[in-house]
Amino acid sequence: MAYSEKVVDHYNNPRNVGSFKKDEKGVGTGMVGAPECGDVMKLQIKVEGERIVDAKFKTFGCGSAIASSSLATEWLKGKTIDEAQTIKNTDIVQELNLPPVKIHCSVLAEDAIKAALADYKKKAETETK
Amino acid sequence: MDQTQNTSNKRTELQMARSMCWHCQSEVTGEYYCGQCVKVQPLSKEMDYFTCLGLPRLLAIDTAALEAKYYELSRTFHPDFFQSKTEPEQQISLGNSALLNTAYHMLKDPVQRAEYLLKLEAGSAKDIRNSPPADLFEEILELQEDLEAFRSASGDAKETDQYRSKLLVDRAQLEQRRQDMDTKLAGLFTKWDTIQNRAPQPDALRPQKDDVLKEMRELLSNRTYLRNILNDVVAAMEGGHADRRH
């Protein structure tokens, strides 16, 4: 299958690959997988105040899954928690020109964002208690 | 929708008997041919693969019987036998053969068979993401990091050996776990078949059926994750990257 130029770009030069320490203050971790293809995605955000100051990911899967998570980390940086909550998989599909068979990769990325945000919120709550 | 569900456990003939012959418009009474004009009849596109191959919706299947039925139907529909027939008959022969091939290949492999049954029985079950197996994910990410280190250490013989021996242990352990999963899967097959034999009607014993299906969904998903990491480990040790099938 031919990947779009943007997918190839993210695949060859993935942005923000890496990880933070899970228990570091302000770090939210989302780990999700796609049972259909066995892809695994880990996406982390680092929050200061109300704003996401950094984001990192590690994805083991196909080019579209890597590109989707790479793009997601780019979008997350600088956003507030509330803004990040509004990122939809359809935005990723549009930006990367994903074909129908690869839409689940973008869903995976959205799930990872949601999971990371939820993890951050949960941690923040217990920290203030 | 209801029609296909209700007939799914009956014989193929019944499903076909509802239709009229495309050629002479009389009611089709034969299995694959019209009783009046003897023209070949198209298999219904809604026909599920079990019905297509004359099998009940069970998971432990006799592969020899499956193969025999497949060969029998292949001969019935093979396009070679329709070369001298009319254009519509040739098209039907092609269509039926294609459906038959897909059905056979899907049901031949136990894992694909189970995936297919899940799709038939639970429809959207695949979309329901059950809580991801966090432990397994952590493990996979760690293993992937080891793999990366192994790949990039290719210049240093001593370091490579160290990683290699660690990966050998990991590989054996992963293979063992896959075997354990396959044993468990076989157990679920038996469980499903027992319930299905007792209550073949789609709605009967639904909660029990759904429990088995849910357990199977989880097992098959974890098996896919495990298979991928195992493939990656094997590929790294034998040089080169794993070829992901997508």
What does the overall shape of chain B look like? Answer: elongated
Distance between the termini of chain A: 51 Å
The oligomeric state is heterodimer
Distance between the termini of chain B: 31 Å
Described by strand count, sense and barrel closure, the largest sheet of chain B is: none
Mind telling me the C-alpha Rg of chain A? 14 Å
Per DSSP, what share of the residues of chain B sits in E-state strands of 2 or more residues? under 5%
Defining traits:
heterodimer; A: about 130 residues; alpha+beta; three-stranded antiparallel beta sheet; 5 helices; about 45% helix; B: about 250 residues; mainly alpha; Helix Hairpins; 9 helices; elongated; disordered N terminus
Write the layout of secondary structure elements.
The complex is a heterodimer of chains A (129) and B (246).
Chain A: H1 5-12, E1 27-34, E2 39-48, E3 51-60, H2 63-76, H3 81-85, H4 89-96, H5 103-128
Antiparallel strand pairs in A: 1-2, 2-3
Helix pairs in contact in A: 1-2, 2-5, 4-5
Chain B: H1 2-7, H2 12-17, H3 49-52, H4 63-77, H5 87-108, H6 110-122, H7 134-152, H8 157-198, H9 206-237
Helix pairs in contact in B: 4-5, 6-9, 7-8, 7-9, 8-9
